[in-house]
Specification:
Blueprint (H helix, E strand, L loop, with lengths): L1 H14 L4 E7 L6 E7 L4 E8 L4 E5 L7 E6 L8 E6 L4 E6 L3 E4 L3 H25 L5 H21 L5 H7 L11 H10 L10 H4 L3 H12 L6 H15 L4 H17 L3 H15 L6 H12 L10 E4 L2 E4 L8 E7 L4 H14 L5 E9 L3 H6 L7 E6 L5 H5 L7 E6 L4 E3 L4 H11 L2
Parallel strand pairs: 1-7, 11-12, 12-13
Antiparallel strand pairs: 1-4, 2-3, 2-5, 5-6, 7-8, 9-10, 11-14, 14-15
Helix pairs in contact: 2-3, 2-4, 7-8, 8-10, 9-10, 10-11
């Protein structure tokens, strides 16, 4: 009886066994801390963090940690400096190098998925080389196709019962039965791109797999002669695949919109928002994002800049009343912004030789004292006090999220450039004056 009691006491200890996540980062001096997240359908959930000391990192996963895809963030910005891995109730050890990426030393799940992707990539690279070869050997092609099929079948069989199996099945590439020329292969690859992907699979949904698949489809299959038409058609097909997954559809479309916005591609960004996003966004919970979409439409290259007014001793004046200049630069800055205080003197000196370019400087401030002193250094600028800082209605209308921000307008007040900094601004104006 005593032995039975002793065994029963041990059972809870085994039930809550915890697993270790450990790794080494190199070069050690470049890494200070790592943050662990669990990836879920529309966001990432913080789990734990640990310092990286002398290049070594270790933490214990919580006893209730769920199986799935996790992410290690090792620097800022988080969306750039990270890598993902599978956790399925096993210890995980890895090495990481900024140039070579992550290499798993144990963990059956991650080693299996890594091996699969490596084998498939070698064969895909060989097929691409075959198509670029001036005198290809047809027998080589058939060997590559056989290798694709064999590798896929082997890993699907080997991975059954694992989380890795979901990713291996979903990444099954289009594989022809016979020789196809490059154009036919490319078109068929596009046609069958989503065949193996189950957008309702909860394992895939709680990872970046579906997002990556959607983004790759949108940006890979593009006609260089009609890129925007290709982007629109590709986005339509992605949405079609996601018709029963509204939350995931919204997340992917938001990311696509942001990417095209960052590229200053207002045609495709506005297509995404007007065709799909506006119907998915909630006026209350998504208000900030809706404001961002509207601001981007307001300030797209080629549109007339949003009008605004300001008080002067002679009365109220507005942007659309200004005349007599070749260019107008609307800049948002702050007297407490160090970058602004570095770039504005450069702009002042540069424009001293360009009398037909007028600056409208909107100081986004919390209080006027320092702003009033600073603007004395720029007597040729038109100064507007932007009360409320980020909550100022003009900055909201222009979608400003950082200072300094620059908008270049032509004589008719159409936006012709949105340079990232004063150097890019001066380069743009130099080109216009050649």
């Amino acid at each position: 009886m005593k032995k039975l009691i002793f065994i029963c006491c041990l059972l809870p200890l085994f039930a809550v066994a915890q697993h270790q996540l450990s790794g080494s980062f190199s070069p050690a001096e470049d890494f200070k801390a790592a943050i662990l997240y669990k990836i879920e359908i529309t966001n990432s959930v913080y789990i734990n963090h640990a310092n990286i000391e002398n290049g070594v990192f270790e933490l214990t996963l919580p006893p209730d940690a769920k199986s799935g895809m996790y992410r290690i963030v090792y620097a800022l910005p988080q969306n750039e400096y990270n890598f993902d891995f599978i956790y399925n109730n096993e210890d995980i050890q890895f090495t990481f190098n900024q140039d070579e990426g992550v290499k798993f030393l144990n963990s059956d799940e991650n080693l299996l998925l890594t091996q699969y992707r490596g084998e498939m990539q070698k064969t895909k690279t060989a097929i691409n080389s075959f198509y670029s070869n001036a005198n290809p050997n047809p027998s080589d092609y058939l060997n590559y196709i056989t290798a694709l099929k064999t590798t896929q079948n082997q890993f699907e069989s080997k991975s059954k019962g694992t989380l890795a199996h979901h990713f291996i099945v979903s990444e099954k590439p289009y594989t022809p039965n016979n020789y196809e020329d490059a154009a036919t292969y490319f078109n068929n690859y596009k046609t069958h791109y989503f065949d193996a992907i189950d957008f309702s699979d909860p394992v895939l949904k709680n990872s970046n797999a579906l997002l990556d698949a959607a983004l790759n489809y949108v940006f890979i299959f593009v006609d260089k002669d009609q890129p925007n038409a290709s982007y629109k058609n590709n986005i339509d097909r992605v949405v079609e695949q996601l018709q029963n997954e509204t939350a995931l559809q919204k997340t992917i479309l938001e990311i696509l919109w942001s990417q095209f916005k960052d590229q200053q591609n207002n045609v495709v960004a506005n297509y995404i928002s007007s065709t799909y996003l506006l119907q998915l966004l909630d006026p209350e919970t998504d208000k900030d994002f809706l404001d961002e979409i509207q601001a981007f439409k307001n300030t797209a290259i080629g549109v007339t800049a949003p009008n605004f007014s300001w008080p002067t001793p002679e009365g109220t004046k507005s942007l659309d009343q200004l005349s007599g200049n070749t260019f107008y630069i609307v800049t948002f800055w702050s007297s407490t912004c160090s970058h602004c205080l570095e770039e504005l003197p450069v702009l002042k000196q540069y424009l001293s030789h360009k009398p037909k370019t007028k600056v409208i400087a909107i100081g986004l401030e919390d209080e006027p004292t320092h702003w009033q002193q600073t603007i004395k250094n720029y007597p040729d600028f038109t100064h507007i006090y932007g009360e409320g800082h980020w909550d100022n209605p003009i900055s909201t209308m222009y979608g400003v999220t950082g200072t300094p921000s620059f908008f270049v307008l032509d004589a008719s007040k159409k936006i012709v450039a949105k340079p990232d900094d004063v150097e890019e601004l001066m380069s743009f104006l130099d080109l216009q004056h050649q």
